[in-house]
Amino acid sequence: MLAVEDLSAAYGRIEVLHGVSLKVDPGEIVAIVGANGAGKTTLMKTIAGVHPAGGGRIRLDGEDVTRLPAHKRVGRGLSLVPEGRQVFAPLSVADNLALGAFRSEGDVAADRAAMEALFPILAERRAQTAGGLSGGQQQMLAIARAMMARPRLLLLDEPSMGLAPIVIKDIFRALAERHRSSGLTVLIVEQNVAAALSLADRGYVLETGRLVAEGRSEDLLADPAIQRAYLGG
Ligand code: ATP
After folding, report:
1. pLDDT tens column, 174-186
2. CATH classification of 1-77+151-233 is 3.40.50.300, yes or no?
């Protein structure tokens, strides 16, 4: 579905992604894990088209989208949940969900019901403004809003950031459930290596702009070098 080949990206003259290659197959959950500053957010922004690629190629179902503007990538089925959530704070929870579906040709009412079943708090808070939600609830809303667009590939940038472990668990459980029930395909970047690899089928490790390891999640979780570097092992 997604194939990234030898991708580089820079801020001004400083290159922060150096030849990243990865793929995501339909129905997979793939995690890219790495420390603070490794380049995870830049990679997600470049795939989504909100940061330009310096070199290399991004293909979606074989189509080269490397130079396609972000909104056209949304039209191709890519949906990014950016770091830091970014819900529309003055709008209600219901309006946030409706905005997520504004280009959808699907059954919007059914999709909203599915999101409210997945995250029941969004039904309880339907009429409240998004800005009044807790951080965890805002993250749920941001994910639900992105899913209202019926993405073929959901890009998640550090959904666990700043959240309590119990809230992280809830969110990751919901993602796993959606993956099981509807075959949702996900590319997630995370600093929370244990949570991300527990959710994902496969993973890549990003260090200072380069992928240094890849494999099945259970193999990465069992790898002593990864345990030492990222899991406090
Ligand atoms: P974090 O977990 O902190 O978000 P990350 O892995 O997502 O980290 P990036 O945010 O992609 O990493 O940053 C990668 C590198 O690019 C870092 O060295 C960072 O300082 C640098 N960087 C990020 N954004 C900018 C910017 N707007 N201008 C200049 N340098 C930037």
Report:
1. 999 999 998 899 9
2. yes
